[in-house]
Amino acid sequence: MGFKCGIVGLPNVGKSTLFNALTQTANAQAANYPFCTIEPNVGEVAVPEPRLFKLAKIAGSKEIIPAKMNFVDIAGLVEGASKGEGLGNQFLATIREVDAVIYVLRCFEDDDITHVTGKIDPLADLEVVETELMLADLESLEKRKSGHEKKARSGDKESKAAIILIELALEQLNDGKPARYATISDDDQKAWQGLQLLTSKPVLYVCNVDEQSAATGNAFSQTVLAHAAKEDAQAVVISAQIEAELALLEADERDEYLADLELTEPGLNRLIHSGYALLGLQTYFTTGPKEARAWTIHVGDTAPKAAGVIHGDFEKGFIRAETIAYDDFITYHGDQGARDAGKMRAEGKTYVVANGDVMLFRFNV
């Protein structure tokens, strides 16, 4: 399990440059003109996880397999996208398929890179993109509402329940607010997600700054960070150009370059970890001579649910999970040392997996 995150924004804000850096490929054409991304690009990215390498070294694992995340580079939206302007309809449909949305906002000045509105104002850019997504949601909901109303009149309970959620979403949108601001009960979450609203998805703001501002940010990024704080959202400051250059360097050169820029780690690491936090994800590990592997689950998942990420049969036939905390695995130099020290626990079906647990599942099918 990972998640699919769509990268959106106005043309020429650095979306494709960021995507190229994330995937370390040149599949997305980063060019200085609108709609240079003609087809949505999807890249699979390894999740940075230093703990995995330490576990592999202790376990003598031949192969290291990190957790993966998918990123989708979506062409620049423009005003009128909800009505099909630019390449609007095609890419609005792509956004519906992602789990979270990254808004890339231009927070740098460069006379050589044109801006579609002629000025640098990241919050105004955000408003344009979000307005188009909200308009698309409004149109979608109005169409579906009439269909549900017909079924509801004949006594269909699911349609009656759907109308309540649709009206709740319409209330938010007509008030100029994204659907994600609506308060939804746990019981209604599945049906709410089934509406596939563009503005109900979690968002992460990326402030794309110039090289000189990569470590400290600038006045533009400060406005975005303040906006994110007001809505309790995730936001990171990144120089997409620097990240693209880092992706081409060897490890030692990369470390030296980061040090020169007074950065402790690539901005992409912070982006991925912020994405994990945004969706409530965490990692557990499996180790052995063959491989050490990181697995992604949701915070709060039980042991059987975690086992199911490996294979459905593991969840169906779950017996127990032999579990060692990450720190104990390191302290006692591996599986056997932790067992001898009494740090291996046999956990049952109700055990809630902790971040970093090293697990071995016993099951019967």
Give a verbal description of the structure.
The chain is of the alpha/beta class and 365 residues long. Helix content is 41%, strand content 19%. The protein contains 14 helices and 12 strands. The strands form 3 sheets. The protein has a 6-stranded mixed β-sheet, with helices on both faces. Strands 3-9-8 form a 3-stranded mixed β-sheet, with helices on both faces. Strands 11-10-12 form a 3-stranded antiparallel β-sheet. Helix 1 packs parallel to helix 8 (240-246). The chain is flat and about 65 Å long. The two termini are 22 Å apart. Mean pLDDT is 86; it is low at 25-38.
Number of helices: 14
* Residue windows where pLDDT falls under 50 for at least 5 positions: 25-38
Kindly name the structural category.
alpha/beta
- How are strands sequenced across the largest beta sheet? 2-4-1-5-6-7
What profile does the largest beta sheet have?
6 strands, mixed
Overall form: flat
Q: What's the N-to-C terminus distance?
A: 22 Å
Q: Mean pLDDT, rounded to whole units?
A: 86
Question: Roughly what fraction of the amino acids lie in strands?
Answer: 15-25%
Integer-rounded radius of gyration: 23 Å
Count of beta strands = 12
Please bin the fraction of helical residues.
40-55%
Encode the helix/strand succession as letters: EHEHEEHEHHHEHEHHHEEHHEHHEE
